Amino acid sequence: MLDETNALQVRIEPWAEADLDLLYRLNIPEMLEHLGGPETEEQLLARHKRYVEIARKGTGRMFGIVLLPSLEAVGNIGYWERSWQGEIVYETGWGVLPAYQGKGIATMAAAAAIASARAERKHKYMHAFPSVDNPASNAICRKLGFQFVAECSFEYPPGSTMRCNDWRLDLGESNSLNGEDSKSGSVD
């Protein structure tokens, strides 16, 4: 359990072979309710292989989110290339284990991942596509200065269509953690 009297600190660490256990811990219904549910063993092993290899291929980065000072792995975050509306952009996504949600961990980890993507100077934009039914992830996008673009449909998982919000961040700009957008709603 977290000691909430101390300010939380997190670190993101490059995804490694040893992170397979964390991926299993993240592969639970409450973590994947907005993404089609848990994956099969085969899908999970393929995902882990992609996560391990992505940095070597130069198409993005995946990280484990580590709580300090305990060094406990509490989630994952990453960004990867995708073609979106005629251009190559980074897409980002994250997950924090249920016991650690609502404490700002995903926001801190996402800020670190954004800094990593900015340092690469490879793509102009990073997009996030949280489900329209996922208020926490949409709030994180607002906090990090992403601009709301529009609702859109995504095929994810393959064979299923989900409604998402398209959030875009200009990686060439410095954004604060209190970004404003045109979509109404409070940030928790």
UniProtKB/TrEMBL annotation:
Signal peptide: none annotated. GO terms for molecular function: protein-N-terminal-alanine acetyltransferase activity. InterPro entries: Acyl_CoA_acyltransferase, GNAT_dom, N-acetyltransferase. Residues 10-167 form the N-acetyltransferase domain. GO terms for cellular component: cytoplasm. It holds the Pfam family Acetyltransf_3. Keywords: Acyltransferase, Transferase. Gene3D superfamilies: 3.40.630.30. PANTHER family: [RIBOSOMAL PROTEIN US5]-ALANINE N-ACETYLTRANSFERASE, GNAT FAMILY, PUTATIVE (AFU_ORTHOLOGUE AFUA_3G00765)-RELATED-RELATED. Belongs to the acetyltransferase family. RimJ subfamily. This is GCN5 family acetyltransferase.
